[in-house]
Design a protein that fits this description.
The protein is of the alpha+beta class. The chain contains seven helices and six strands; from the N terminus they run H-H-E-E-H-E-H-E-E-H-H-E-H. The strands form two sheets. It has a four-stranded antiparallel sheet, with helices on both faces. Strands 1-2 form a two-stranded antiparallel ribbon. The longest helix has about 60 residues. Bound molecules: heme C. Heme C binds next to helix 3, helix 5 and strand 6.
Length: about 220
């Protein structure tokens, strides 16, 4: 995209995102509205719903990230980088899936340049990623909670190339990414796009879709 279009796009996106907190909506946040908790109708305010959604999102990402990171480090330690790629290929999805099922939410890591084609963003995720990518730096990266539709909230948190470890498998091939690692990446992920990153760059984001009734349930428990 050329710069002008890019700026226009970003402007539109910001309007779209900010319209979520337009003055009318803001007033409405102190108001009470009806939500379903399971099959029971309960009354909660918008502000409480969003705040609780944000809190749950943060907890879920922390747990998912912690579990994945521990698994990755364990695999590198016991099997080396090549073994760790194979391990991630076989297990990354199952690790997150277990958390998803126990919490009744949808958890994904998405990227504009995915390694696993399943990590391609959907259209809403694509817009949010585009906004994060605009002038990205790890220090100005913030998480967000938005209303996805009538029944669902979406929590997102950007993922940066936080340290040198990431570069072993997401850096420049032939330099940080060693040949034997590249070979296994190419064999497991023929459409891999997740190379060529440098430190501090945006790698992707966590996307957690939380049914409002899950949020309401934890608010009213
Ligand atoms: C041992 C190699 C290895 C290391 C080190 C590594 N990754 Fe990855 N990464 C992978 C593999 C393999 C996948 C694909 C996993 C799958 O199939 O779900 C992946 C996927 C991802 C994804 C999901 C999006 C996508 O491209 O599919 C993100 C985000 C990510 N890595 C970020 C990081 C960050 C940040 C670090 C450093 C903290 C890191 N990775 C370190 C191998 C690695």
């Amino acid at each position: 995209m050329d710069k002008q279009l890019d700026t226009l796009f970003f402007g539109l996106l910001m309007i779209l995102l900010l319209s979520n907190c337009s003055p009318e909506k803001k007033q409405d946040t102190s108001g009470i509205r009806n939500e379903m908790k399971g099959r029971e109708l309960v009354r909660v305010s918008d502000a409480d719903l969003m705040a609780k959604g944000n809190e749950l999102g943060l907890e879920i990402v922390k747990a998912s990230q912690g579990t994945l990171q521990q698994a990755l480090l364990g695999a590198i330690e016991s099997e080396g980088l090549v073994g760790a790629v194979e391990y991630c290929n076989a297990n990354a999805y199952d690790i997150v899936k277990t958390l998803e099922d126990s919490l009744d939410v949808k958890i994904k890591r998405v990227s504009q340049k995915p390694r696993n084609p399943l990590d391609e963003p959907d259209s809403v995720e694509g817009m949010i990623l585009e906004a994060y990518a605009y002038d990205f730096s790890p220090t100005n990266a913030v998480n967000q909670i938005l209303e996805l539709d009538e029944k669902t909230l979406i929590f997102t948190q950007p993922i940066a190339i936080a340290n040198g470890l990431c570069l072993n498998c997401h850096g420049t091939s032939g330099e940080q990414v060693k040949d034997e690692v590249l070979t296994v990446i190419k064999s497991k992920y023929p459409d891999d796009k997740a190379l060529g990153y440098s430190l501090g760059e945006l790698r992707g984001m966590w996307s957690v879709k939380i049914p409002k009734k899950t949020v309401v349930k934890s608010l009213t428990e």
